[in-house]
Amino acid sequence: MKRKAGLAEAAARAARDATAPPSCPVCGRALGSKMEWHHLVPKSEGGRVTAAVHPICHRTVHALIPNADLARSYADPAALRAHPGIARFAAWIADKPPDFHAPTRRGR
User: Fold this and answer.
1) How high is the pLDDT of residue 16?
2) What is the tens place of the pLDDT at every residue in 10-44?
3) Helix (H, G, I), strand (E, B), or coil: what is residue 41?
4) Which long-range contacts (CB under 8 A, 24 or more apart) does 20-25 make?
5) 39 within 8 A of 30, measured Cβ to Cβ
6) Cβ neighbours around 56 below 10 Å, total
7) For residues 80 and 1, what is the distance between their CA atoms, to the nearest angstrom?
8) How far is CA 103 from CA 7, 43, 56, 106, in A?
9) Which residues contact 42 (CB under 8 A, 6 or more apart)?
10) Do residues 104 and 59 make contact, with C-beta atoms less than 8 angstroms apart?
């Protein structure tokens, strides 16, 4: 009986997740019509896993963190959000619409 309840709960969770708009792993906002694919570990460092992110978030990540550091310390989205520059950026962009765009300055 517990197995059936677990299967029903998993099916309900999957249906709920399918209707919820996907969110950006960098800023946590819902994704808009424009998105880019970010390699969590850069391709130059052997990465293959990607995540959908806002274009402005993608540019900010690469402006603030070198690829070697991304591969070594920031391959996990939670660790990436904990980076001081990314955290400051996420706080700034939190109330902007999903397709918001602004020029990205080089931060390195």
Assistant:
1) 60
2) 666 666 655 557 899 999 999 999 999 999 999 99
3) coil
4) 22/52, 24/52, 24/53, 24/54, 24/57, 25/51, 25/53, 25/77, 25/80, 25/81
5) no
6) 22
7) 41
8) 46, 25, 8, 10
9) 67, 70, 71
10) yes
What tokens were used for 79? 């660790």
Q: What is the amino acid identity at position 14?
A: A
Q: For tokens 């274009």, what's the residue?
A: 55
HSE (CB half, 13 Å, CA atoms) of 1? 0
Could you write out the DSSP letters of every residue in 48-85? --EEEE-HHHHHHHHHHS-HHHHHHH--SHHHHHHSHH
**Residue matched to tokens 């904990």:** 82
